[in-house]
Design brief:
heterodimer, A: 111 residues, mainly beta, 6-stranded mixed β-sheet, B: 112 residues, 11 strands, globular
C-alpha cells in the first residue's frame, strides 16, 4: 500500500518569505497528487492538484512533481499569517479512489 | 453552491456508547467518502460509496463501525460500543465521478 511521508514536521516562516514543503511517496503506483490546507477545527481545502511531472501554480501556491524521484513539493509565495495551518499531501492511483495522506506539516507564519 | 455539511460538529461519549454521524454531500456528487483523522495524523479512508453502493469498506472496523447511503445522497456512519481509540475527527467528502474531493468540516469525537 502506498505510503506518504512529509517533511518537515513543522515550519516557521516570516511573512513574505518563501515556504517550502516536501512529500515523498513509497512507490510509483500513484498518478495524481494533491496538497490540502487544514485550519484548526475546519475541513480540508484543496490548494493544488497535479497529475504530470513539472510545475503547477494556483495563485501563491506552486506544486512540483518528480515521479522518478517519488517526490512532490509545495512552495508558498509571500506567506501570510492567515496561511498558518497544517498542510497535507495526498496521493491517489487509478485503482482506488480514496486518497492516501501524509501526517502533515504544521506551518506558522509570523508578521 | 453549498458545500459538504456534517453533523454533529462535536460528540463526547463514554466507552461503550453508540454514536452516529451524518453527512450531506454536494448536490449531484455521486461518490461519498468517510475518513478518520486521529489527532496529529492525516486522514485515513474508512469507506466510500458510489451512489448507494459500497465500493470499498476494507478499512472499516466492521465489528463496530457501519456506514450506509440508502438513497445515494446523505450518508450515516455509526459506531457501536465506542472505544477510546476511536477518538478522532471524522471527515466526509464527496466528488463527481471520482474527480476532486471536497471535504466537510468534520465531526470531532472524544471517547472518555
Amino acid at each position: 500500500q502506498q505510503k506518504v511521508q512529509q517533511s518537515p514536521e513543522s515550519l516557521t516562516v516570516s511573512e513574505g518569505a518563501m515556504a517550502s514543503l516536501n512529500c515523498t511517496f513509497s512507490d510509483g503506483t500513484s498518478n495524481n497528487f494533491r496538497w490540502y490546507r487544514q485550519h484548526s477545527a475546519k475541513g480540508l481545502e484543496v490548494l493544488v492538484s497535479i497529475f504530470s511531472d513539472g510545475e503547477k501554480e494556483e495563485g501563491r501556491f506552486t506544486a512540483h512533481l518528480n515521479r522518478a524521484n517519488l517526490h512532490v513539493s509545495l512552495h508558498i509565495r509571500e506567506p501570510q499569517p492567515s496561511d498558518s495551518a497544517v498542510y497535507l499531501c495526498a496521493a491517489r492511483n487509478n485503482y482506488a479512489q480514496g486518497l492516501t495522506f501524509g501526517l502533515g506539516t504544521r506551518v506558522s507564519v509570523f508578521p | 453552491e453549498a458545500g459538504v455539511t456534517q453533523s454533529p460538529r462535536y460528540a463526547v461519549l463514554q466507552e461503550g456508547q453508540a454514536v452516529s454521524f451524518w453527512c450531506d454531500p454536494i448536490s449531484g456528487h455521486d461518490t461519498l467518502y468517510w475518513y478518520q483523522q486521529p489527532r496529529d495524523q492525516g486522514p485515513q479512508l474508512l469507506v466510500y460509496f458510489r451512489d448507494e453502493a459500497v465500493i470499498d469498506n476494507s478499512q472499516l472496523p466492521s465489528d463496530r463501525f457501519s456506514a450506509v447511503r440508502p438513497k445515494g445522497t446523505n450518508s450515516t456512519l455509526k459506531i457501536q460500543s465506542a472505544k477510546q481509540g476511536d477518538t478522532a475527527t471524522y471527515l466526509c467528502a464527496s466528488s463527481y465521478r471520482g474527480r476532486e474531493q471536497y471535504f466537510g468540516p468534520g465531526t470531532r469525537l472524544t471517547v472518555l
